Known about the structure:
By secondary structure, this protein is α+β, with helices and mostly antiparallel strands. The chain has helices spanning about 5-70, 75-80, 85-100, 130-140; strands at about 105, 110-115, 125, 140-145, 155-160, 165-175. Strand 5 and strand 6 form a beta hairpin.
Amino acid sequence: MIFRSLRHRIAALFVGLLALVMTLILVLVTRSNEHIVAEEMGRELTAGSYIFTQLVGQNQHQLEIAATLLASDFGFREAIATQDRPTIRSVLRNHGQRIGAKVMMVVSPDGQVIAETQHSGATSRPFPFPDMLAAAELSGKNADFKAMKDGDLYQVVLVPIQAPRLIAWVAMGFPVDD
């Protein structure tokens, strides 16, 4: 009834074509926007990943320098050579507080923890990360991310203590946070 006149038919056809074209344009723009957003997110993630990797590497280098500085301290090496555990723990605690290390350990060449800041017991225990120790023995030092007993993630740095031969390893753990 409404479409009996030619004018109504033309108007309905024009409105239908206009709605079809507008829907097609809307679909194309939406898909194009989704594609652009996905590409931009990929670029942002790539850039963020690169920056994060650079920051982790830079942080690792600074931690290795701090650990190497401690390992080269004559008094510290002497305390390790004489097995003076209270002095070793005191040096570990003081150095750890200065550089922000939450976990510090001295590990014997055979993989036993000589002293640490977490526990003050006199009994030694195996180093909790033997894979790091094995890698450090091959390359001279090692750094990795490890989960500690408290469930938190730490960046752990392991460097040798030489006097002039290897007498121990110093391990420093720095919490990974925001």
